[in-house]
Amino acid sequence: MKLDILHQPDSSVAKIQMAPREELLAEAGAMVAMSGHLNVSTTLRRGKGGGVLGGLKRMVAGESLFLSLFRSGDRPAEIYLAPKLMGDLLPYQLTGCDLVIQSTGYLASTGQVNIDLGFQGFKSMFSGESIFWLTASGRGLVLLNSFGSIYEVEVDGEYIVDTGNIVAFEKTLSFAITKPGESWLGAFLGGEGLVCRFQGRGKLYCQTHRLGHFGQFVGSRLPAISGSKGQIVGGVLEQVLGNL
């Protein structure tokens, strides 16, 4: 399988060349274009992270209930995948170390990768983010997506990231939700809110923009459609985008 990422970083699309008898799992609706002979099916996936329970668990984490399964058959095939929002893509090669993925950060993976629900504790709930994140295990390729550009950080010791800018991190890292400075009042008045303090050694992947901030910005600036009805629509959109 050969992967090329085009139009980075704000409008990334993955061009994937599949060899014969290869398979690829992707979020429902991620396919942009593909070879005519590529076999496509909808699946809940079997094994670890699969089945009805696995699909429901992915829904809790903010992902699709169903996954799309692409098989190349007896000849090479080509497929293009893209995220729902404008942003970047980053390939991660699993080699035995589990990867924890923030809600909406997963786009696709090869057939030997297991995608399961990982409970990160109620500390995540207090950060305003999902308490259920996805855990990728096994061996193979995982394709991550972000809102805005995505970049890698090699953590060796301690590193602090805003909770809304986390895409994924290796499970060798531990984390705690805390304030960015010495004062809780200063943190909230300054607009920083809560941050994630990572410790240990491992890779961390961050995105440059936050969906919550984007939702608040767009929703608060929508023009009124017709008096109170327009305000209701704008308020609903702001809340939906802010919770993404």
TrEMBL record:
Write down a Pfam family by its short name: AIM24
Domain of life per record: Bacteria
Give the source species. Pegethrix bostrychoides GSE-TBD4-15B
> What is this protein's name?
TIGR00266 family protein
- Could you tell me which NCBIfam families the record lists for this protein? TIGR00266 family protein
- Please name the PANTHER family in this protein's record: ALTERED INHERITANCE OF MITOCHONDRIA PROTEIN 24, MITOCHONDRIAL, TRYPTOPHAN RNA-BINDING ATTENUATOR PROTEIN-LIKE PROTEIN
- InterPro entries in the record: AIM24, AIM24_sf, Trp_RNA-bd_attenuator-like_dom
